[in-house]
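Extended Data, panel c. Modelled sequence:
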Amino acid sequence: MDTIKLKRKVEIQRFRAIIDLGRQREKEVYIAILKLAQENEGIITPELIIESFFEGRPIDFAIRIIQNCKIDGLFDDYGHISEEGKVALSENKIFLGENGAYEFWTTLDPLIPQLILDIKLIDVRQMNKKANRGSVEVIPDWIKNLENQKINLLNKNKDVIKIYEFLPQIEVLKNYLNVTVHFHITPLEVSEESKLMVAGDLRKNLTQIPKYSFEEIWFSLLGIEKNKWDPNKSALLYNFEDVKDNNSRMSFSIDKQFQRPDILDLGKFEDVSVRNIPIIPVNEKEANIWANWILEQEINNYTYEESYIEICYGIASKPQFSDFQIAFPSQIELAEKFIRREDNGEIKFLEKFWYLQTPIDLRIKN
C-alpha cells in the first residue's frame, strides 16, 4: 500500500500591529559573557568582564554591556543569569529586542503548530495612510496569548522570534499569501518516514507531526468502509464482481478515491487517491470464483496436464487464498467452458478451448 498523501490550502489571516519582540540571533559576545557568569556561580559583574575580556578598558564599558544584556533579558537586576539566559546558553543564541509596526500572517490550521507563519517590519507611516488601513479590532485572546512564546517562522530566513508584547489593537488586512500544507503518512512496510511540510509562498518541513498512527488515519479515511478491513491480512474484503478492473483482480490491489475527506481532528483535505490498496476475497465462495477466473486468464498457450496442475497449484497457493479451500475444474471441464453456441445454432470453439483440448487429444492418440 502506498503512502497516503493529504493536502489542503491553508486558511491565513493577515494583521498589522505595533509589537515589541525579540529575534533570535547568534551573538558571540553575549554568549561568552553568559558562559563567564555560568563559571562564576551564575553571577556577572563589571569587574569580571573587564578582567576576563577587556583588560584596561574603563569599568563603565562593562556596565553598559551588562545593561544591554539585561535589556535583552539575559540577566536579572542583580546580575544573575535569567531563565532566558539559560535558554540562550543551551542554544548558543539570544533574542535581540526590536519593536515597531509589523505585518504578520497567522493560521489556525491544526496541522501547523505555530499560529504565526511570518512577520515583517513595515514603515509605521503605512499604518496612518487611509488607503492602507484595515478594520481595527481589539486583539483577540488567541493572538495575545502568543506573548512570550518561542515561534519558528516559515519565512526564507527561518527566523525564530519571541513576542514580548502586542499593543491592544490590531488591523485586519486582506491576505495575499498562497500556502498549502502536505501531510504524507506511510504504512509500516514502507521505509520512507511520514512527512509534514508547508509549500507555496512559504516553505518548510515541519517536525511536529501529528501523533496518529497510519492505521488511525487510514480508518478515518475509510469511514464506514473500515468494517471491510481485515487487520490480520491488512487488506480490504471484496466480492469478485465488485472489482471491475482486470489488473486489480490479478494483482489483488486497487486505487481508491476519497472525496474531501475529514480526518479525525485534523480537518478536511482535498480529494485524495490512495494507490495499491491490498484486497482479498470476502469469503470462500468469492475466493473460488476469483481463483477460477484467474485460472482462465492463465490459459494463454497449449497447456499439458503437468502444466495445468502447476498453474492450479500456483493460484491456490497465493496468500490471498490461504484461508480457503480452492476447487478447480478438470482440464476437460474447463475446456468445455470455452465452447459457445451462437444464436443461429452454430457451435464456436474459442481459442482457449484448443489450448486445453489439443494436448488432451494428443495424449490420447499417443
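The CA atoms of residues 93 and 349 lie 83 Å apart. This feature is highlighted in the accompanying rendering.
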